[in-house]
Each structure stands twice: as structure tokens, then as C-alpha cells.
Amino acid sequence: MASSSRTTPRAPKRPPTPPPPRDNALTRLVARARRAWDRPLTAYYLILGSSLLITVLGLVMVYSASQITALQMSLPGSYFFRKQFLAAAIGALLMLVASRMPVKLHRALAYPILAGALFLLVLVQVPGVGMAVNGNQNWISLGGSFQIQPSEFGKLALVLWGADLIARKQDKRLLTQWKHMLVPLVPMAFLLLGLIMLGGDMGTTIILTAILFGLLWLAGAPTRLFAGVLSVAVVLGALAIESSPHRLNRLACIGATDLGPNDICWQGVHGLYALAAGGIFGSGLGASVEKWGQLPEAHTDFIFAVTGEELGLAGTLSVLALFAALGYAGIRVAGRTEDPFVRYAAGGVTTWIMAQAVINMGAVLGLLPIAGVPLPLFSYGGSALLPTMFAIGLLIAFARDEPAARAALAMRQPRFGRKRAGGSVSDRGPRRWNTMRRRASAARSSGER
Predict the structure, then answer these.
(1) For residues 292 and 280, is the Cβ–Cβ distance under 8 A?
(2) DSSP states of 370-426 as a string?
(3) pLDDT tens digits, 196-225
């Protein structure tokens, strides 16, 4: 008898699994960029690299833009460049010192810097001491050709003092009350603004107002409080503009493409001529035409126009990219820290530099009134360069002070050649190299991640 065999039904075939999609070059590039942005030392390198590049490019453009002005004043062609180079060297030293100072020392310097700035601002108004330049009484002569503008140091004073004040009030949980939010921050800021406006410097008052609003925003000021302070600032600004025909003319020249009656828009229009003549890649370094007496303040307030004429759209976009990188790094430092003082100080410095850059470039492009403020780290002027480079040193110190950044910097010590203390080489036994694994363990044991 034949045995019946039992057949098992076959399982249905599974559809073939599609292979994982291959990462294209763009996806890999985006992933690599994200990893680079998330590294602990990204902000540190961005601040250091972008600020140094802006300063070096600024030195080159100051040399190019100031030669004709120096020759017209019967001075050597490199006169302004040498002064700017000296200021940059001193500023680099200040930046190095500020980047190595602990946060406690920065906080301790807040009140002395504020007192010194107030004293100098009062000294400017003393007859025989203060000097008037271009109609503004904002300068003190240091002898010879060296002058100082105390209002530039008022920006640094407001940032440090305001950050320390708000941080101490936050520690005491007083920022929930509006009077502690405003007093004494707003009265002190208005005192600085009043002393600066006595000299007629409207541009610097705008920058200080931006710093004040930046500090209030970082402190979490409510909208109605913002509206109140903004209303007072707008009224005071309108009165200051209306009382000066020169400021009214600057306001009327926004977007102007012709010189206007009595050539009141001469500077703004010739700034646009310089930018238009540059094209994509510029006419070449040193080949600007507008700097030959046509464009006033070519090496100070309107150096961005000369940059556009000589380096073209590529050069101006490069400057914009460097300032954007600096601003991003400053915001990142302020957003990632847990120290209130670091958050407010980093935010104040970033607001200061970015607001001043936007106002300067906007005036050159004809989008904003000409405020007479230099381009930070770029334009000629030692009084503006020194406090700005010290402020950059603040940002570098704050970026280095992050726990992850400290651990990453500690792991970059020399890998070999470190001897253990005590005894000779033969007494200590086999050498233990200071490897990356050992340094990482040491960094983790200290509580830094």
C-alpha cells in the first residue's frame, strides 16, 4: 500500500526589500555641516576667525581708501594706515587679555569702566579740553595727532555694567517687578545718552539705545514695558532730529539717487556711485575713483562703498558673511550658557556690533539715514577699534568658558613627552603616555562634558 505523502503549502514570497537609498553628495555635505556646527569649539573659532579677518581686511581697505585723503592733507600716503595698524596692535593685545580674563574679573571691571566713561564724557564738555570734529564735540586730544572719543567706550561700559546689574537682580529674583527691570538701568542709559547728545553725536546714541533694548529683551521685559521705553526714545529722537537741519537733510536723503538742492545728498549718492561702479568683482584694489575727493569720509563711515567699488559685489558679500558668522557665534554663546552675566554680556556685545554694522551698511546702501557711525573692526578710527576688540575678547572668553569647550581645549594638550612628577625615568617604571583616552577620562572625572 502506497503511503500518502503530506505536502506543506509554500509560504508566499516576500517582496524584495529595496536597498537603502544611497546618500548623495548634498546630503553628506549637509550632515557634515551640521556636525561641524554642533562642535563645542565652533563658536570660539567663528568669533576668533571672523573678527581677525574683518580687522585684517579693514586694514587693507583703510590703506587703500585713505591714501588720497592723506596726500590732500600734505601727509604721507600711509599716514592713516600706520595709525590704524598701531590701534589694531593695541586692540589685539586687549583682545588677548580680555579672552584670558575670568568672568569674575570682567564683572569686577564693570563699575570702573562705567565711572571712567562718565568722567571722560563730562570732560569732553569742559572748554579747552573737548574738541569738535565735523561739528560734534565728542573728542579729547591726547597730544599730537592722537585723539580719543569717550562715547565709544560708553558702549562697552553700558554692556558690562548692564549685564552685571541684570544678572545680580536675576539672582535675587527681582526681575519680575517692572521697577527693578527699569531702575537704575534705564536712567543710567539715558544719562549716557544725554552726555553724548550734548556733543551732537546722534549715531552713537542710536547704538546705545539698541544695546539698552537688547539687554531689556534678554532680561525678559514684557511688551508693554518695551513699548513705553521705545515711545520715550522715539519722542526724544524726533525732537533731536527736528532741532537740527543737518539731521533733517540726512533723513530726506534716504533712497536718493540725485544730489538734491545745494548737494545735500552728495555723500549718499556718491556712495551709491561707488557701489555701482564696482560691478561683480570690482575695479581692483586701489583703483577706486570715488576716493579721489568725490566721496567724503571714504576711509571711515563710507569705507564699505570703497570696498564695493574696488572688490565688487564679491567683496561686499564676503564682509557681510563675516559679520553674519560673528553675529551667529555671539547668539550661540548667549543661548548656550547657564551664567546670566555671560548671557547678557554676550547678547549686549552682539547687539552692539550687529546694530552698528547694519546702520553703517544701510546708510551706504541708501536704505537708512547717514548716522556717522563707523563699520566695526573695519573703518578707520582707533577710539572705535579698541573697545570693540576688547568686546570681541569678551566673546572669546565666554566661548572658551563653556564646559564642552573647556574639555575640548584640554584634550588638545601635547600627546607625548609629559613626565610624571617624582623620581628619575628608571625609578618610575615604564612610561605612561598621555594619550587621548587618558585625557578624555580626566576631563570626564572633573565634571565637564
Answers:
(1) no
(2) ----PPTTTSS-HHHHHHHHHHHHHHHHHHHTSHHHHHHHHTTS-SS-PPPSSS-TT
(3) 988 888 899 999 999 999 999 999 888 888
